[in-house]
Design brief:
The chain is α+β, with helices and mostly antiparallel strands. Strands 1-3-4-2 form a four-stranded antiparallel beta sheet. Helix 2 packs antiparallel against helix 8 and helix 4 runs antiparallel to helix 5. The termini are far apart.
Length: 317
């Protein structure tokens, strides 16, 4: 069984798009699924395509932070069952429910509302379970094409052509993953409605106040798009829209007045704003903790911008 693998090497160095689609088709439609873990893991992996170092290593702390956030919001916030057997808890569901009871946390709290120290403690516990049950299982379902890993290491290394493929088709594959996760959860939580909407929004933060304060301290209370200073509370806007990246990174945020934010909507700004964002990130990076910009590179942002457009994001201004 692949789930209990301790080490996984890349099976192929030369990988074509047809080979990757073949493995994804198996993963989505034919692989054995007893819990929702593998879908949640893949969703977290997709959210971290731009949080890898130059050697394409993804640190487990970043991967399992997003994995934990997804499952806290599914298990505690939405109270959704994660196993295909009502008589058997999934281990990750048990960990999260025990934490919620022990700390008497309101069930309507999302993960980012928890104290940071408690978030970190939960992530470490979920990481242990994830290393045991998830990394090898997903590796097996995609036949060792996607990444290599060693559980004693604290990172996995992506296969270059697979990483580029996932970036190229990120929107489509994210939607497929959300759909399959929602389909699994609907089957074992029949009383819940609007499951796909719940899954699509499960990675969203409760609020973006933290990012607003950081940006205002570094850049002032000025709209990134029209340049006007506002006495009203500025919106925190995903430069590359949320529906595409589905993650909250400081390097993808700008402050916007209500008018510009509404008019921009789900579009990407025109090319000259990319240069302005790169300059803003250079300024902000000097004033915040290093982890806010972990693995950030201007080239990655420019690549993400181009992939967003090729994936159907319309251009504004």
């Amino acid at each position: 069984m692949a789930w209990d693998l301790k080490v996984g090497e890349l099976k192929e160095s030369y990988v074509t798009e047809d080979m990757i689609w073949q493995r994804l088709n198996y993963f989505f439609f034919d692989a054995k699924t007893t819990t929702s873990y593998k879908y949640g893991f893949f969703k977290a992996l997709l959210e971290n395509l731009y949080v890898m170092d130059e050697e394409r290593n993804l640190h487990y702390d970043y991967l399992f932070y997003d994995f934990t956030k997804i499952y806290w919001n599914l298990v505690v916030h939405h109270q959704l069952w994660q196993s295909n057997a009502k008589s058997q808890y999934s281990s990750i569901q048990r960990i999260l429910e025990d934490v919620q009871i022990e700390h008497t946390i309101p069930k309507n709290w999302r993960f980012d509302q928890l104290p940071v120290s408690l978030q970190q403690e939960i992530v470490q516990n979920i990481k242990k379970a994830g290393k045991q049950y998830v990394i090898g299982a997903f590796y097996g379902d995609v036949d060792g094409l996607f990444y290599r890993f060693h559980l004693k290491d604290e990172s996995l290394q992506m296969n270059p052509p697979v990483l580029q493929f996932l970036k190229k088709y990120q929107r489509l594959i994210t939607n497929l993953t959300n759909y399959q996760l929602a389909k699994f959860l609907e089957k074992y939580n029949p009383d819940f409605t609007q499951m796909l909407i719940r899954v699509e929004q499960v990675s969203q933060r409760e609020n973006l106040k933290e990012f607003r304060e950081l940006l205002q301290t570094a850049c002032g209370a000025t709209c990134f798009y029209c340049g006007k200073t506002s006495k009203k509370t500025l919106h925190v806007d995903h430069f590359i829209p949320w529906f595409y990246v589905q993650n909250d990174k400081l390097w993808n945020f700008v402050l916007a007045c209500a008018s510009c934010n509404t008019r921009k909507n789900k579009r990407v700004p025109s090319q000259h704003y990319v240069k302005a964002l790169l300059l803003q990130n250079q300024q902000v990076q000097q004033q915040v903790r290093m982890d806010y910009f972990y693995a950030y590179q201007p080239e990655k942002l420019e690549e993400l911008y181009q992939f967003a457009i090729s994936n159907g994001c319309k251009v504004w201004l």
